[in-house]
Amino acid sequence: MHRYPWISLTRALAVLRITVALLFLAHAVMRVANESVVQFAHFLGEAGLPFSHAAVWLITGFEIVGGALMLAARHVRLLSAGFIVLLLLGILLIHRHFGWFVGEHGTGGSEYSVALLAALLVIAAADEWSTVRT
User: Fold this and answer.
1) DSSP-assigned states of every residue in 5-60
2) What is the per-residue pLDDT across 36-61, written as a single tens digit (0 to 9) for each?
3) Reduced to 3 states, what is the DSSP secondary structure of residue 75?
4) What is the pTM of this model?
């Protein structure tokens, strides 16, 4: 008899990978669609990041291409490492100044980024495990 969660660990890990890939992809696509690249670049420039406009386009491109590749289960460990670097830089440059909580008890904090960091570690480990097993 099957019990919750009604899917295998392999499928659950695929759901996690696909979900995280879509989150990064959607985040970047909305940045472009809402034309907020300039605003984000200005914010990063104010935070002391040199070449902030180019950096935002590199980040956005990585999130779009990396999200699409991760969605297709390509280069998962390498992309996970790249996304982890982006998240750690985001925490350092942006989110730590807003505290821990993202919503309800605060705005813009680090908790969401930490959850994504944990998810990316699991995704990378699962990719390595599946490569070793096959």
Assistant:
1) T-S-HHHHHHHHHHHHHHHHHHHHHHHHHTT-HHHHHHHHHHTT-TTHHHHHHHHH
2) 999 999 988 988 888 999 999 999 99
3) coil
4) 0.86
